[in-house]
Structure formats: C-alpha cells, structure tokens
Amino acid sequence: MGRLGVTEILVILAVVLLLFGGKKIPELMKGLGSGIKEFKNAAKDNDQPADKKEKEEDKPA
To answer: Which keywords belong to this entry (predicted)?
Structure first.
C-alpha cells in the first residue's frame, strides 16, 4: 500500500463533491473541526494531574 499521490487525492475529492454536493461540504468540515476540538479538549483534561483537577472542581461556579 503506497502513499497517496496528487491524482488519487483529486479523484477522492471529486467523489466526495459528487456525493455530498458543494453546499454540504462546509457543514461537514465544520462538524469535523468541532469534533476534533472537543477531542483535544477531552485529551487535555485527562492529561492534567489529579491534584489540579480536584482544585478546579472545588472552585465555585
């Protein structure tokens, strides 16, 4: 299995454009971006030490 070349990427983009249409693609990318952002935030929250998490949870809202 080799790397994707320019031709393969163009074919994939053309198929995606045909399947979803031009108006739907920005909505899909926005959803994908927000999903990635949420994933990074969740991963960052899990990386914090337990002491720091407890202090943040004890703060009043």
So the answer is: Cell membrane, Membrane, Protein transport, Translocation, Transmembrane, Transmembrane helix, Transport
Question: For 2-36, what is each residue's pLDDT tens digit?
Answer: 788 999 999 999 998 898 888 888 888 899 999 99
Give whole-number Cα distances, 28 to 1, 8, 23, 25, 35, in Å.
Answer: 28, 21, 10, 5, 11
**Do residues 20 and 28 make contact, with C-beta atoms less than 8 angstroms apart?**
yes
Exposure string over 4-42, b if 16+ CB within 10 A, otherwise e:
eeeeeeeeeeeeeeeeeeeeeeeeeeeeeeeeeeeeeee
Q: d(Cα 42, Cα 20) in Å, to the nearest integer? A: 30
